[in-house]
């Protein structure tokens, strides 16, 4: 459990995780197709926030990687985005957004480095906080960067709905997170073949077999290289936490956010939104 990990151990795990993502995002550099689309951003938001709310907004993105979410926000009409990235992927981030750099403030540092003047309307952290041992300082920094009434939206791995999956993946990750990149990449090819074979069998089963909502409506919409990347993203990082709904909501409420609402996205993950109080 997190409260049993020493501060020094937290730092070591976080540094290793950042290095893992640096290697990942300097290898898998592009965000093409559905993987980097506004349609997928809308799917992540779910019923909590219409994509139209991004238009004209000053936004922040914590853990920007190769710029996928930043690009989604700009494509959805954001006026400006503050992009924060601590890993070696920072150079890829700047390269991918070179043509739109007038709309982006690049911050090389951890999530706690999120800051903005004037304050932001919206801060996102998509698929990042569940890889941080103690995300509380990052959420606090996001709150400080928002204007009163501004919103934070985070997407987290969920524990509910993933019980069978985790019974396989958690033991597997003890091995895969130590594998060299090329070996893990080859394993991801095998994993994608197995998932596609399962989907094919399900289609022939007359409804007796049914892939998960996520597999049908997100994974299978991705290009082949992005499907393999999704598997790699699950098996590579040194640290990953799967949040219950209560833990996901508490993460924002503990930082002083109000009107916190959680959406069980595709029955396997949590999208959570909260608001900085108008008077604080």
Shape: globular
Strand order of the largest sheet: 3-2-1-4-5-7-6
Low-confidence stretches: 1-7
What distance lies between the first and last C-alpha atoms, to the nearest angstrom?
32 Å
Helix and strand succession? HHEHEHEEHEHHHHHEE
Strand percentage lies at 15-25%
Query: Could you tell me the radius of gyration in angstroms?
Result: 18 Å
Helix count equals 10
* Proportion of residues in helical segments: 40-55%
Question: Can you summarize the main beta sheet?
Answer: 7 strands, mixed
Write the layout of secondary structure elements.
Elements: H1 7-27, H2 38-45, E1 58-62, H3 68-75, E2 80-85, H4 90-96, E3 104-108, E4 120-126, H5 136-145, E5 146-157, H6 163-176, H7 181-204, H8 213-217, H9 224-235, H10 245-253, E6 258-265, E7 269-275
Parallel strand pairs: 1-2, 1-4, 2-3, 4-5
Antiparallel strand pairs: 5-7, 6-7
Helix pairs in contact: 7-9
């Amino acid at each position: 459990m997190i409260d049993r990990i020493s501060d020094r151990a937290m730092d070591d795990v976080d540094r290793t995780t950042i290095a893992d993502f640096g290697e990942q995002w300097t290898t898998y550099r592009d965000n093409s197709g559905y993987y980097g689309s506004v349609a997928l951003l809308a799917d992540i938001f779910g019923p909590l926030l219409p994509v139209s709310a991004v238009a004209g907004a000053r936004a922040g993105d914590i853990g920007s990687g190769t710029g996928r979410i930043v690009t989604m926000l700009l494509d959805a009409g954001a006026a400006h985005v503050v992009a924060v990235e601590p890993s070696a992927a920072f150079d890829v981030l700047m390269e991918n957004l070179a043509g739109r750099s007038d709309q982006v403030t690049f911050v090389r540092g951890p999530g706690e480095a999120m800051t903005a003047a004037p304050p932001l309307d919206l801060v996102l952290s998509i698929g990042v906080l569940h890889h941080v041992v103690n995300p509380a300082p990052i959420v606090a920094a996001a709150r400080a960067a928002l204007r009163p009434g501004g919103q934070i939206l985070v997407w987290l791995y969920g524990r509910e709905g993933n019980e069978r999956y985790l019974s396989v993946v958690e033991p597997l990750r003890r091995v895969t997170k130590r594998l060299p990149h090329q070996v893990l990449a080859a394993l991801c090819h095998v994993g994608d073949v197995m998932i596609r074979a399962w989907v094919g069998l399900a289609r022939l089963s007359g409804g007796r077999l049914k892939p998960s909502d996520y597999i049908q409506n997100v994974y299978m919409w991705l290009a082949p290289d992005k499907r393999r990347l999704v598997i790699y993203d699950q098996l590579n990082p040194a640290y990953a936490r799967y949040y219950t709904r209560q833990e996901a909501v508490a993460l924002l409420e503990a930082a002083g956010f109000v009107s916190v609402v959680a959406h069980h996205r595709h029955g396997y993950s949590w999208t959570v939104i909260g608001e900085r109080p108008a008077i604080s």
